[in-house]
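quick q for whoever's on today - can somebody do inverse folding on this one?? i tried earlier but teh output was garbage lol. tokens:
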């Protein structure tokens, strides 16, 4: 049974890879960084090592450098398996250190397993090849620093891309907040206006009536209770015909004639017919308006002129 060592600082990734290898018949040991891996490999040398590149304490590049300097471990094939150092320069650096494979994540499980089988078959019973031109400490350090610098550049680019996305999200949010603020100001103004209108509407002495052109009453003010001396309430008349309130249909016709002639009727005498048949002398002012849907309706006020008549 081939023995494979996994070096990976991310516990979940390490456990998944360990399960994959064990299910496929390998004996597996694992380590969380390069320091742990060197100690474990010297106690129990594996047949191959699979290492991440980015790790704390001692990363994969430093581990590979130390691995190739160890007289026992340097004959064991070293495989990089990384999702962070993925540039061609990173791969060339890994091979220059002595790695026999540089696999970039993500990769299909079967592809990874085939790469591992090929490595184990190729170097079964013989030492893995040393780099053609071993790196001296100065060159290795310089290449390692360059790899770290590339990683920082990549991370900065990712952060900038993320910031651009966030700015793209924040700017509409700021616009939405401005719109929401404007809407709130508008709503407050509308509520204030509505309250003012309601106070005026409720305290009118005249009876306000809105009706369709066919006479159906759409709205009527609460003052109708006073005009009718309690015989009608607002709710009694909404939906009924305005024509029934006229003592004489000729008075209704006079209102419409004034509207046709002058655009509005002002103080046209009319009698308000009460529920019990009694009449209340009134003056009617009315006009025709159109709403947002262009539908015409009659707006009228009825004023009790009993005192004036007396």
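ok took a stab at it. sequence:
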């Amino acid at each position: 049974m081939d023995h494979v060592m996994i070096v990976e600082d991310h516990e979940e990734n390490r456990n998944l890879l360990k399960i994959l290898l064990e299910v496929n018949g390998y004996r597996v040991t694992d380590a969380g960084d390069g320091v742990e891996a060197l100690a474990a490999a010297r106690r129990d040398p594996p047949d191959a090592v699979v290492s991440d590149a980015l790790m704390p304490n001692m990363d994969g590049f430093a581990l590979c450098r130390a691995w190739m300097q160890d007289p026992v471990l340097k004959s064991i094939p070293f495989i990089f398996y990384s999702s962070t150092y993925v540039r061609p320069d990173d791969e060339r650096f890994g091979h220059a250190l002595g790695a026999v494979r540089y696999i970039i994540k993500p990769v299909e499980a079967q592809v990874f397993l085939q790469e591992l089988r090929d490595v184990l078959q190729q170097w079964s019973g013989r030492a893995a090849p040393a780099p053609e031109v071993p790196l001296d400490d100065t060159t290795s350090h310089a290449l390692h620093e360059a790899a770290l610098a590339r990683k920082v550049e990549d991370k900065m680019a990712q952060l900038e891309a993320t910031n651009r996305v966030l700015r793209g999200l924040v700017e509409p949010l700021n616009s939405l907040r401005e719109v929401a603020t404007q809407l709130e100001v508008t709503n407050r103004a509308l509520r204030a206006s509505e309250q003012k209108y309601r106070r005026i509407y409720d305290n009118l002495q005249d009876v306000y009536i809105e009706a369709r052109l066919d006479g159906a009453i759409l709205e009527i003010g609460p003052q109708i209770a006073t005009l009718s001396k309690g015989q009608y309430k607002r709710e009694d008349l909404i939906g009924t015909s305005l024509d029934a309130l006229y003592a004489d249909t000729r008075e209704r016709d006079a209102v419409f004639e004034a509207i046709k002639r002058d655009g509005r009727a002002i103080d046209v005498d009319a009698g308000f017919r009460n529920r019990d048949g009694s009449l209340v002398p009134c003056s009617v002012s009315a006009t025709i308006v159109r709403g947002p849907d262009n539908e015409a309706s009659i707006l009228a006020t009825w004023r009790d002129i009993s005192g004036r008549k007396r």
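fwiw Residues 247 and 271 are 5 Å apart (CA to CA). also The chain is about 50% helix and 20% strand. so keep that in mind when u check it
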